[in-house]
Amino acid sequence: MALVEEDIWKTYNSNKDPNLRNEIIIKYMPLVKHIVKKLIISDITQSEYEDLINQGVIGLIDAIEKYQPSKGVKFETYATLRIRGEIIDYLRKKDWMPRSLKKKYRKIEETVETLQQKYNREPTVEEITEACGLNETDVLKTLSYINVSNINSLEEAIENNFKLHAISDVELKNPEEEVLYKELKRKLANAIENLPDKERLVITLYYYEDLNYKDISKILNLTESRISQIHTKAIKRIREILGEYF
After folding, report:
1. C-alpha separations of 145 from 29, 90, 142, 202 in Å
2. pTM above 0.70, yes or no
3. The domain containing residue 192 runs over which residues?
4. What number of other Cβ atoms are within 10 A of residue 124's Cβ?
5. What is the CATH number of the domain that holds 135?
6. Coil, helix or strand for 166?
7. CB under 8 A, 24+ apart: contacts of 210-214
8. How far apart are CA 169 and CA 245, in angstroms?
9. What is the domain-level CATH number for residue 40?
């Protein structure tokens, strides 16, 4: 685009020009595709892929219409939450899990429950893999789907809890809500800051640098299953600290 970013939004918010909106959509289509690819954890048809892209575009358009530059948040950050949220809502409504994955999910779910009772704690990926007889890749893919379905994103957990549009785009309705929100953000920051070094790094890379387990495993020179285990421990610690909010 010929206009700089600030001018783009100033112009669009003043006239809602559909041609400019189309330019913005085209510019951020790679972001939509990136988010779709990150959420996909099994083979899908071209038609299913296009359905997810379409849902992502709906989220992108929603972000374009509601974005307020004055809040000091980058559009890409705001749009990512809206796009991902739209796709996940669609997946939930469609109950979109391949039949083969459903069988593995049930098997893993039963295995996890058995191991929880046996060890009185959350089992590791290695323990699940050994107990259910599936390979590590299948276990990780299935657990990834469960994570997407449950929306384990810290930002989305907070968003859902407070029924806000996004953590970075807060429209507080009253002073009490503002106090609660600020307190939650403070506690979340403290919780992450006080994590063990490796857990804090995994959380930062996964949620704020938008890297997946495979990318993080290469950076830290650890296996994907180990990264998954570290991530699970970190989330558990954070949820224990923020328990009153969830």
Report:
1. 24, 14, 5, 19
2. no
3. 151-246
4. 17
5. 1.10.10
6. strand
7. 210/38, 210/80, 212/38, 213/140, 213/144
8. 19
9. 1.10.1740.10
